[in-house]
Amino acid sequence: MPYVSALGYIGIGARDLDAWQTFATEILGLQVTRTADEENVDTLFLRMDSRHHRIAVRAGEDELSYVGWEVANEANLDAQVSELESAGVTVKENPQLAEVRGVVRLFQFEDPAGFHLELFYGAATVAEPFVSPTGVHFTTQDPEGRDLGLGHIVLAAPDTEKMVDFYLNTLGFKVTDRITYKPLVLTFTHVNPRHHSLAFGPAAEVPNPTWTISCSKSRVSTPSAVLSTRSAPVNIADCHSGTAYQ
Q: Largest Cα–Cα distance in the chain?
């Protein structure tokens, strides 16, 4: 039985927080809170809905730091952890980190490519309404109020088949479709009515596998931006206009 219900949040590192702050507010239309994190590191907390933030951008190297996958309740959390452990995955509960993330419970583990994953439930919301500095609206819920999550991410790793097998057979993701851009084949997977919350593509053997993030907007033209990392150009954000669910 699938237990993951949404892409809850992500954390990334960035060398230029000032550029990210400008990009987040003026291009993406996100609310930004800039403050020191729990380790006293300069961090941007990017908000798009009733959650305190969906994206944390921390001063450091340009890299994907962690991905937070949400489940609906504690029973689903325990069941998914049990399935991970049965598959031989090392899983660690971290109450201190749960408090930092603003969730009730949180477990940490890694996927086959070494990306740091967090499984959680019970995310807190804030009372103050989200107000975009550019007047846009982000679609993070369906018409019935069910959470659809941040949007989607794309992970690229040398062994795509192993990644797809892990997310399908251990985490319960479902394949939406596969698209070929010769010679590349991209696999799109979903955990809710979004077309996809996670996609996979092949990558060469590099120290830091490539990745992209994408957030879903409505009532706005489609902006995008490309930043560079040490290994390769990485499409950091591509925010789609229109309806985010099917």
A: 48
